[in-house]
Amino acid sequence: MMKQLLKLLRVKHYIKNVLVFLPMFFGGVIFEKNRIINACLGFIAFSFLSSVVYIINDYRDIEKDRNHPTKRNRPLASGAISIRSAALCSVVLLVVIISVSTLIGNYIASACLLGYLLLNVLYSMGLKNKPVIDVVILATGFVIRVIYGGLVTGVTISKWLYLVVVTGSLYMGLGKRRNELRGQTDSREVLKYYNESFLDKNMYVCVALVNVFYALWSIEMPNPRMIWTVPFFIVLLMCYSLDIEGDSDGDPVEVIIHDKSLMTYIIMYAVYVFLFLYIF
Fold first, then answer.
1. What is the pLDDT of residues 142-182, one digit of tens each?
2. Which of 155, 188, 213 is at the close of a domain?
3. Contact at 8 Å (CB) between 54 and 13?
4. How many domains does the chain fold into?
5. How many angstroms separate the CA atoms of 106 and 109, rounded?
6. Which of 51, 54, 120, 262 could bridge to 9 as Cys pair (CB 3.0-4.6 Å)?
7. Nearest alpha carbon to residue 259 among 272, 245, 273, 270
8. In this structure, what DSSP letter does residue 73 have?
9. Half-sphere exposure of 123 (CA within 13 A, CB side)
10. Whole-angstrom Cα Rg for the chain
11. Could you give the CA distance from residue 26 to residue 278 in angstroms, rounded to a whole number?
12. Are residues 191 and 142 in the same domain?
């Protein structure tokens, strides 16, 4: 039962919510106690909220998932967890989210959580079948995480870092749709509106802009040594691109989790940036 519950909550996707810590990390204030506490609370709130969104999506797609070769094994579609139990779980999670948000005491940040929930409900109710809009919503989820992280920690986000997150998120969203289309392993209705040429071209535009915006952000940073992280960042994106050009389904979490080399590069990059921001 616990294993099925973890699958229902999509716990492994909590890795996406590490973005909440991004503004604090790049802002050079990661050792400030109050900010760390708020960031950790924010991570919990956003992780639980994302689980609520996944439960809503699974409930909405339950009949479709039952006819899918792999999604039929999901807890709701397979019947491993009842709809009533899933609903009760959602209520408990929402109570925890409200409690944590109250503890943080930032109402604008709480509005971000509400906006994320409403956006994903609209996505589940039909916007996921609208071409381009579906990718924009996927990307917006990542952007909201970063904005939320800045709000709960009181860190102003650089305009260039914001653009890095926007274009990077669009790149990953387009890559996910491209690989779903190529593999035809997904029953998404929206895939009939896409073609590989469109997705490829826009992926290339976004990945180029990510590199440009990152370089501009590194130049803006107080520590001039940050410019030396640009080649590292470009190579990191190349490694990610190599994965999604292969047999991957394009899901960012699955790509990172299943590529130990890429995970190692990400950790090395984080250490590299940490040394420049906090040591040298």
1. 999 999 999 999 999 999 999 999 999 999 999 989 888 88
2. 155
3. yes
4. 2
5. 5
6. 51
7. 245
8. G
9. 22
10. 19
11. 10
12. no
